[in-house]
Every structure is written in C-alpha cells, then in structure tokens.
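Hi C.,

You asked whether I'd gotten around to modeling the 419-residue construct. I have! Everything is below, sequence then structure, no commentary in between.
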Amino acid sequence: MRHRTTAFGVLLALGCRTDRTVLALANWADYREAAIEERALAPFEAAHPGVVVQQQSAATGPVEYRERILTAIAAGHPPDVFLLDDSDVPAFADHGAVIDLAPYLARLGVDPVRYDSTVLGIFRRGSAVYALPRGYTPIVIVYNKDLFDRAGLPYPTSDWTWDEFRRVARVLTRDTDGDGQVDQWGTAFDRRAFLWLPWLWSGGGDVLCPDGTRSTGCLDGPQSVAAIRWLTGWVTVDSIAPPRAEDNLRLFYSGRVGMLTTGHFGIPNLQPYVDDGRLRIGFVEIPHRAGSPPQTVVYASGLAVPADAAHRRLSVELAAYLADSLAEAIRRTSGLELPSLTASAQTLAILDTTGWEPVFLRATHHARIPWSARIAHWREIDAALPDMMDRIVLQHVDAAAAAHDMAQQIDSLLATADP
C-alpha cells in the first residue's frame, strides 16, 4: 500500500521546538469530553517539546459559547484554535474572523479529499476552507426493539416511506394498562427545527428557497405545507405522539415512545440503558414521502484559527492534528459524533458490533448542508420556527396559514441581513 503522509507525521518531523509556548484551545466540552480531549492532545504536545495546549472548556449553550469567542476576539485575546459550530460559520467566516486554512494544508500533508465532502462543505466558501471538520452527525431515527418485538413488527429498513412510518407508529401506539388512555406512543413530535427540518426535506419541502434569499413561495408552498400538516398530524390527527411537550428522551428510554428523531449525540445518553440491559435499540434513516428522495441534514463542528492568532503556524498545525485520524481515534470513545475523515468513519462502521454506525454512514450519503451554515440570520429564524409548530399543534391554526405567516416573518428577518 502506498504510504500517505498525515498531518501527525508532519508534526513528528517538526517537533523540535525548545521555547515554551502556550496555545489556548476553546471548545464547549463538559468534564468528560474535556478529559478525552486531554488524551487526544498528549501526542501533539509530545511532538512539540515546549508547547503546552490549554483547554478553555465551557459546557455552555451555543449562544453563550459563541459570545465568549466573539468577545475574546474583540478584546484582542482570541484563543489560538477554537471549535466552530456549523451555525457559527456565517458569523466568523464571512466576516474575516478566521483564516483560510487551504493555503496551509498541502505543506501539512492534509488532503481535503480525505474528509466527507458534504461535511467539509459546511466550512467551505469556494476554494477557501475556514475550519477542518472534527466530527459530525446526520439526523436519523432511533427505535426501541423490544416494543417492535412485542408488537410483532419487523425492524424498519433504510428506504422506508412516510406511509410505512405512520402505519408502524399506529401499531406501537397503545393503551397498555386498559384505563382508556394512551400511555405508549409510536413516536414523539419535537418542535425544534433542527430535528424536524430533515422531515420537511424528505417530503419535498423547505424553509427557504434554493438561493436562501426568501421563504415565501417555499415554506408556504404546497409541498412544504403538506409536509408540515403531516408532521403536526402526528399529534392533531393520528394521535401517534404525546399531545403535550414532554421530555421525549425520557419517554423513549422508559419505553413509552417507540421511535425518536435524534442524532449521534443521543448515543451517550442512551448507552447506559443499553449497557445494563434495560433498552435494546436500533437506528434507521428518516423515511421519505413516496415520490421524494430520502434526505436528511448533517450537523458538524470544525477546528478554526482566528485571524489574529498569536501563533498562526502552530495554531494551524494544532487544528490539522485535532481533525486528523489519531485524535479522531482517541476521541471516538465519547460517542457524540462520527469522525469526519471518510476512511475513519468507514472503519468505525466496519468494526461496529451494534449495527448502529453503518446506519449513520448511509444516512450521510443522503445528507444536505444545514441552512445554519449558510444563512447569517438563521439563529433568529431557528428561534422563530417553533412558534409556527405551536400555532398548529396547540392553537389549531391551519398549517397553510401558519406557514404563510412564518414565511413572511422570515423574509423580514432576511431583509435585515448584512449585505
């Protein structure tokens, strides 16, 4: 097999510094994730005598994390490398806050082709690469195998349709104690847009029109309205989902919901119940409406270097290392994401004994880049979209009227975007 030079190999060759340099790495890791990241950082520090990497971890929400990084950059004290969420790409990349890594990649032995093209596309603008993807997840469905077995249902397969999903969800919806009230539902509806957006896509609809400049004519178009009506119908028509907003994850692991929309990030929360035998689960791709192709969304984070980084060369080397195979292999134990290197993700799927990882990998082939990585005002749009679903589900407003009102509201938000 032909030898391929990796970024880590270059690091070993360059690791001859004697001066002490401290690099700040900012991320949103919690205590457990930070400990895993420390193990991933150890080989980099070993290859760079005199270089110390200090994590600036803050297990906060995305808004708080974003503001912390922006404040540090504005104050003239940016981290040397920081984790960039897909939803923050417009704010940082489109305004020159991070450097284009593309000119550095060849000399570090980093071939962009090694990354999943859709995932890398989140951080690209033309030929520029503003972050190297660390990990990602497509959105899929997790299902409770025990509930399927009790109902005599075969496990779902990847190319299933909305009609099949609804049929299965109806069978799984039951009154298990005979009191006349449903206490086990086939699925659960989540008002958050990042989870229902792939359902809208798989039905041929969308929030924005293809060029991303408007919503009217698309969110309130016939295919989108039909998809929204079908989705909210889980609660309002079919009664296959709980009628009130609850902790859907808790309902799932307690056996009260049979199928749940989730991502790879859901595995660490479910793993303890699987490990002690209380839960048997499988994953499957999101179904599609008959006549529409399977689609989902992929969310990712990447390593970026601020434009004013004090140690630019070392910072780029660190970002490249943290997005390379050795760091990915160490980080894999967290279970939060798939590795962004195609070969690493394929190896993970081959070695997996649960059958879960091949599903995520297949779903990636049907995944699209999220609007959040392209639209500067998506955060405001994302915050407004649940209101549309609430009006339909809770206030019984017609889906077409609610979608039209929301499309106009989104257009107003887009009109205030920076030129």
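If it helps when you're writing up: Residues 31-47 form the longest helix (17 residues).

Thanks,
B.
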